[in-house]
Structures are given as structure tokens and as C-alpha cells.
């Protein structure tokens, strides 16, 4: 679909997200950490049914009487494929204008900088290149294998992805001092933490019901990773009720 470069504008754009989606939580955590709640509105999906993501509670009036995300996507004549979240709607045109999490993050962090709260963290610090590499590595080793392990149509591919995910988690847990050293090098609460936290909360929150035996959170110790997630959960802005409700196993596994 057609996507545009979003300008810095308060109260014009609205985020459409799902609490269970790790790509969405990167965006929602960033929005909260930067203090953009007043400048950028948000609506969480009520569920995902036969026709895709649903917003049963309704969306802003400027978008019309829409409850299905796919109906917003369909307003773009170039759209084909799946209607995914996160997505940004322009309330001035009633159209979706950005549907890639990386593009949305860049807009929130860089373009909307004038609207950041005083004292907001520098999520992309002077070592931004290192943050980007960490981000990419997390996607390739955690987020994408988790997705393949639960969505792939080939059982063998799902099993292989689950095994890859398990190996990565065990190695990361066993060498967590090195992971922490890398995160600290970037600074406090950078985008690297946001990406890793989003991936791990997905695993701990949904792994028991989505992954095969041997790869589930209940099957692995991962005490260092649990402590890391729990520590951020205890800080303001890292988790809200809409997200925790979509991750039923999260609190069970990070506080055990």
C-alpha cells in the first residue's frame, strides 16, 4: 500500500495496535517513554477474528464507522495482502499512511521530537548504529523464529524454528552478562531494550500456548531473562493492562 513520510503534527495521527504483537509493543512502549500520549492517539484491537483484526469498541469518529482493520486498508486502491498492525491512520484524510513498525518508530523518535516530554530518554543515542545492529539481531534470532514457530504451515518448519528459538534463549540466558554489557554501552532505556523486552514478553506471555513441548517457558529455566523482563515491568510505561491482558503467561513466568 502507499505509505507517506509523516510530518511532525500533534493530534493528527492515530495508532492502531494489538497488545499481543511484539512489533506493536515496540511502538506503544516508545510512545509512552517519550511522553507522546497526548500528541498521538491509540486504539488497541479487541481481538482477531475470521476477517482479521477487530476494533469492536470503535475508532475515532474521523475514521468513520469502522470496526475491521481490513476496511481501512481497503481504502487504498493499491492494497493487497494482509491487514497488519501496527498501523498509523491520518485523521485528516481517514486513510492509513504508515504500516511498518520501523517507520513508525523513526517518526516517533526523530520526527516528533518537538513533542517529547521533558527528560524523555534518548532512545537512539550516539551509538545508534550499535542499537540498530542489536535490533536486527534480536529480530533474526528471537522475534522472527517465534513467528515461524507458530505461523508456519509446514510442521517441520515450525519445529525447526522452535528449536532455533530455544537455542538462542538458552545461549542468551547463559551469557547474559555480555548482553547486559552491550545494553549498558548504549545507555539507559534505549531502543535496544524496547526491542528485546518486546520479544521476550511475547515469548513468556504466549509461549506456553503457542510453542511445542521443550520450547515453552515452563520447560526452560532462563532465570536471567526472566529477571531482566521483570525489572522493566516494574518500571513505569513498559507495560499497560491492554498488553498484559493479551500475554496471559507473562506475569506467571517472570515472577515465579
UniProtKB/TrEMBL annotation:
GO MF terms, alphabetically ordered: glutathione transferase activity
GST N-terminal domain location: 21-108
Domain of life: Bacteria
Higher taxonomy: Bacteria, Bacillati, Actinomycetota, Actinomycetes, Actinomycetales
Gene3D superfamilies: Glutaredoxin
Gene Ontology cellular component list: cytoplasm
Protein name per UniProt: GST N-terminal domain-containing protein
SUPFAM superfamilies xref list: Thioredoxin-like
Amino acid at each position: 500500500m502507499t505509505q507517506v513520510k509523516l510530518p511532525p503534527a500533534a493530534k493528527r495521527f492515530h495508532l492502531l495496535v494489538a497488545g499481543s504483537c511484539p512489533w506493536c509493543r515496540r511502538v506503544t512502549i516508545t510512545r509512552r517513554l517519550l511522553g507522546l500520549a497526548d500528541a498521538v492517539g491509540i486504539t488497541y484491537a479487541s481481538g482477531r477474528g475470521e476477517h482479521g483484526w477487530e476494533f469492536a469498541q470503535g475508532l475515532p469518529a474521523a475514521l468513520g464507522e469502522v470496526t475491521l482493520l481490513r476496511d481501512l486498508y481497503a481504502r487504498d486502491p493499491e492494497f493487497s495482502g494482509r491487514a497488519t498492525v501496527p498501523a498509523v491512520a491520518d485523521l485528516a484524510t481517514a486513510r492509513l499512511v504508515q504500516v511498518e513498525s520501523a517507520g513508525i518508530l523513526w517518526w516517533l523518535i526523530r520526527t516528533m521530537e518537538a513533542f517529547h516530554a521533558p527528560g524523555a530518554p534518548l532512545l537512539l543515542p550516539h551509538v545508534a548504529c550499535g542499537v540498530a545492529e542489536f535490533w536486527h539481531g534480536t529480530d533474526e534470532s528471537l522475534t522472527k523464529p517465534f513467528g515461524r514457530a507458530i505461523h508456519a504451515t509446514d510442521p517441520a518448519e515450525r519445529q525447526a524454528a522452535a528449536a532455533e528459538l530455544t537455542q538462542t534463549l538458552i545461549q542468551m540466558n547463559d551469557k547474559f552478562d555480555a548482553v547486559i554489557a552491550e545494553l549498558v554501552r548504549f545507555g539507559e532505556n534505549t531502543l535496544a531494550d524496547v526491542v528485546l523486552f518486546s520479544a521476550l514478553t511475547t515469548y513468556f506471555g504466549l509461549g506456553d500456548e503457542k510453542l511445542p513441548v521443550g520450547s515453552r517457558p515452563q520447560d526452560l529455566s532462563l532465570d536471567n531473562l526472566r529477571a531482566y523482563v521483570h525489572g522493566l515491568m516494574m518500571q513505569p510505561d513498559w507495560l499497560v493492562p491492554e498488553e498484559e491482558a493479551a500475554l496471559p503467561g507473562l506475569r506467571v513466568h517472570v515472577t515465579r
